[in-house]
Amino acid sequence: MNLKEEVAKASQNKQAIGHFNVANFEMLKAVLLAGQELSQEKGEHIPLIIGLSESERKFIGSRQAVVFIKSWREENNYPVFVNADHCHSFESVKEAGEDGFDSIVIDFSRLTVEENIKATKESVSYIRENFPGILLEGELGVIGEHSALLDEVPEKAVINKEQLTTVDEATMFTQETGVDYIAPAVGNIHGMLKNSYNPNLDIERIKEIKEKIKVPLVLHGGSGIRDEEMKEAVSAGMSVVHISTELRKAYSFGIKDLAGDFFVTNPDEVTPYKVMEPVIKKVQQVAKNKLELFG
Ligand code: G3H
Ligand code: ZN
Q1: Which of 181, 250, 197, 191 is nearest to 221 (CA)?
Q2: Sign of torsion, CA 227 231 236 238?
Q3: C-alpha 282: how far from chain center
Q4: Calpha distance 31→202 (Å, rounded)
Q5: What separation in Å is there between the alpha carbon of 243 and the centre of ligand 1?
Q6: Which of 23, 66, 125, 202 sits between 20 and 30 A of 168, alpha carbons compared?
Q7: Taking Cα atoms as reference points, which of 105, 102, 172, 180 lies closest to residue 143?
Q8: What integer pLDDT is reported at residue 207 of this predicted model?
Q9: What are residue 36's phi and psi, to 5 degrees?
Q10: Mean pLDDT of the chain
């Protein structure tokens, strides 16, 4: 089971691997169940990537989550991988290497392109030297910071054509930094708008970058995108898609629903795994629907 091979396979087949951010073990369980359920239906193992941002790692316990996921992978012989999502400093990248992640997102996209290249390069050479085998992703363009429900597009997010990642930028960044894959800004934003779909993706730009760039492409900010548009983005060349806000929403709204639903019929139920079952089911359904869209 090798993440690099799985991503290469997805890239060749114009499919995408689902990358799901989790903040606790119930969300993790829901994503694993979604993968298993769909795998059973399709008769083949659907690979999964579990993502943990810096704050999610802090909350769940970084090293413990890695050990749990890797041991689950071995026991079930299932291709699930664990990614240290959005590391915003060299220290954070180094810690992710020490904690044993399968891949690391080196995110200096808040800096200028030149500074981003310099800082990413430094992290890449440190990890290559000290933790060979970990896959490394680089980030281009500001796409907002939070996986949250939004009233409007985040102020600094780049969504106009002239601000999006260009083929030249992507080429230069990839060559200079030596990352294994890149996440360009193609109209995507972190988080999802409360009252409408997110802004449109630039499908043509994805195709142009994909044609010229050797490494696979990653789409961040996968929540709030219309299903048809998501399918287009995947066939245009996105080989990994990150989903967080839609899972968070299913989880939190699921908890809210317990009061008017589960506890009405089960007022004395106090067993956590029984109480949380309907919540887990909701998160599982969202993850499964996304996996189906990714082909
Ligand atoms: O890295 C995390 C993702 O890019 C998730 O974005 O919250 O918009 O789904 P999202
Ligand atoms: Zn992201």
Answers
A1: 191
A2: positive
A3: 19
A4: 28
A5: 5
A6: 125
A7: 105
A8: 98
A9: -65, -40
A10: 97
Q: What is the pTM of this model?
A: 0.98
- In order of start, what are the domains of the chain with their CATH numbers? 3-293 (3.20.20.70)
Ligand 1, CB cutoff 6 Å, lining residues: 21, 51, 85-86, 147, 190-192, 220-223, 242-245
Q: Render pLDDT for 84-100 as a digit per residue (tens, 0 to 9).
A: 999 999 999 999 999 99
Does the pLDDT value for residue 274 go beyond 90?
yes
Residue 40 to residues 5, 84, 117, 197: CA-CA distances in angstroms? 22, 28, 42, 31
Other beta carbons within 10 angstroms of residue 91's beta carbon come to 10
Q: How far is the CA of 256 from the centre of ligand 2 (A)?
A: 26
